[in-house]
Amino acid sequence: MQFIAKWIARPSAMLFFPMALILYDFSAYLTTDMIQPGIINVVREFNADVSLAPASVSLYMAGGMALQWLLGPLSDRVGRRPVLLTGALIFSLACAAVLFTTSMEQYLVARFIQGTSVCFIATVGYVTVQEAFHETKAIKLMAIITSIVLIAPLIGPLCGAALMHFVHWKILFALIAVMGFIAWLGLLFNMPETIKKRGAPFSATGVARDFRAVFHNRIFLTGAVTISLSYIPMMAWVAVSPVILIDDGGLTSSQFAWTQVPVFGAVILANMVVARFIRDPASPRFIRASVPVQLTGLVIAVAGNLLFTHVWLWSVLGTSVYAFGIGLIFPTLFRFTLFSNDLPKGTVSASLNIVILSVCAASVEVGRWLYLDMGGRLIFHTMALVSGVAMAFFLAALLRLLKERSESMAAEE
Fold this sequence. Notes:
By secondary structure, the protein is mostly helical.
């Protein structure tokens, strides 16, 4: 561990590696958030069906799942640096490629490739942070990173809506491509290598064996399901809200952008609370206290749409309260699940992201189907409430398993 200690001792690495990772992550978010107010314009320009609008998000998430099986084990064997640097460069090129799209199909292919950035960031970038810092510091640092990155959903729709009054929507992707390239340069000069001892040579048998071991771990499985269920209300909202509020609700792009501010602002506020005020974010008592906040938000969304007629108030209010509740504990849930076993963390992270993105992609499609074909906002938010209740049960099971593991390790000592 001396190589990690030496790197941490370098102030420049402490500062500039997280900054470059944040810029890369921030840019990846912007590919969805800046175009979100104009996605209906994209669909119409390519003469496609409006029902394809949410596919821009679901295919992005599918891209984020596509390479998980490869990148985690690969980074365990060849190192974190070469894998993340390759991903940042691919992302920049995929954003630039949007400038040359002439059909909805080409646009969606570009979105799929852009989505692979999720693989590189979550499976390699975040794991590097977790490996370089101890538990409490890593959780707080991830909360800070998340807080900064989530400014993208706040300013992205507003900037996107404003810029599209002056430039074509494709120019947005050109700007993001430049940001991605700057992030690549930052990683090139500042990213540490936390894998000193390379793993076994890359082989299909070895990869399959590692994945099998991960998916046989009860704590990992419970944590993965808990995190996946917690994502459903937020990701379904991100994907379907343009159809709800712009296409059906009649809001302008600018009005829609403002409705997203309280939702993502709530997540940022929650992460700031964790980073600044919570001494032990891994405390089971603190984690349990967040659950009533989450469920209250989901109930507000359902009850408000059931009892009152308003195009956006109850949906936005309920989703914002939920976002604050889940933002309080997400970095901790990720840490718990990642370190649930002693297997290579690249493989564990890849396994986790495969589960999360599979569930999210499916939930976007289910949410779109429920809203468009099964009754509108009420049943859409009911899906979110069901997932929130299920998440609470799995969270309780996760905490129980962690307690049993801790007691077992203490008894062995």
